[in-house]
Amino acid sequence: MSTIATHRAEIDQIDQQLLKLLNERAKHAMAIGEIKIANGDTEMYRPEREAQVLANYMEKNQGPIPDQEIARLFREIMSTCLSLEKPLEIAFLGPEKTFSELAARKQFGGSANLLPQATIPEVFRAVETGLVDFGIVPVENSTEGAVNLTLDCFAQTLLSICGETTLRIHQNLISGAADVKSVKKVFAHPQSLAQCRGWLDKHLPHAEQIACHSNVDALMQSQQSPEDSAALASEEAAQFYQIPILAKYIEDDTSNTTRFLVIGNKKIAPSGDDKTTFMVSANDRPGLLNQLIEPLSAHNVTMSRIESRPAPHTMWGYCFYIDIMGHQDDVRVQKALSEIHNRASLLKILGSYPQARY
């Protein structure tokens, strides 16, 4: 009959094997880095390669560990090995413990160096100026839709989309007030206020709602009068800044999720499971939108998302931001985009990148 001691002995043996194998893996990763440097190749991080590896491990996983946890574990292993070659520098919408930081940790692992930026445009600038290798920005929420500031930044940058990740968003009412009824002001990012609109209307109908650049900025502002102010933020932020949580998981939609995009200065090769995002506009005419997207259907390309925004420097003109399934190097995608280009006054491919798998 097996005993706890027997299982613990087996675990100790397995852990010793894991320790040896992890270090062997790290040595091979470092050797690859040295070969790349000798060949003049500075591209240490390959998003498409990482996506392929994670997808392969998830498909081969036989449990009992869930696929998503397998991906998370191997992401950390790859992050650690990459840091032995050169730690990645990543810009995100700060301060520390924002949802953007949590998304960056999910995408790049715990060994990346994260640099907080005060605004979304500053994340773009940090990448454009070479301060960091990549940036990560929110682009849409499952409840409240597009993050318009991010879309507008894409209209003015030469950066490309290099990846995406999604993050389940749990909003919490965080405050030093005695109880919920004592709260007279709620500070939060506008998206967070919108995600909790129903809860706030029911439990704090008379509280003033004050928009901030980020939820951690909201936490800091709420502490100026902690006896009657609160903020909406993550559990991690509450723990990090040591401020009590008055109410947990107050988002109106229990499946509330935000999608984040990775931005960088490189074109990403096909991974086999990709998306392409492009921006398109044209002079107004009857059936304009239908004419612009018709080539997608004609070439069997799936459109997964479309948003419209005012075109820069144009009165009453609009740009459409479109996500499609497939890589811009795929023949059918190339044919569809070529036809759209012929019908549009502007076509700007923002990037092809691996689709988020977990």
Describe the structure.
The protein is α/β, with parallel strands linked by helices. Among the domains are: 172-255, D-Maltodextrin-Binding Protein, domain 2 (3-Layer(aba) Sandwich), CATH 3.40.190.10; 268-354, ACT domain (Alpha-Beta Plaits, 2-Layer Sandwich). The protein has helices at residues 4-38, 47-60, 67-85, 99-108, 120-128, 148-154, 190-195, 197-203, 215-222, 235-241, 288-298, 331-343, and strands spanning 89-93, 113-117, 134-141, 145-146, 160-168, 172-174, 185-188, 208-211, 229-233, 245-247, 257-264, 274-281, 303-310, 318-325, 346-354. The strands form three sheets. Strands 1, 2, 3, 4, 5 and 11 form a six-stranded mixed sheet that branches. Helix 1 (4-38) packs across helix 3 (67-85). It is globular and about 75 Å long. The mean pLDDT is 92. Pathway: Metabolic intermediate biosynthesis; prephenate biosynthesis; prephenate from chorismate: step 1/1; Amino-acid biosynthesis; L-phenylalanine biosynthesis; phenylpyruvate from prephenate: step 1/1. Its main location: cytoplasm. InterPro entries: ACT-like_dom_sf, ACT_dom, Chor_mutase/pphenate_deHydtase, Chorismate_II_sf, CM_dom_sf, CM_II_prokaryot, G/b/e-P-prot_chorismate_mutase, Preph_deHydtase. Catalyzes the Claisen rearrangement of chorismate to prephenate and the decarboxylation/dehydration of prephenate to phenylpyruvate.
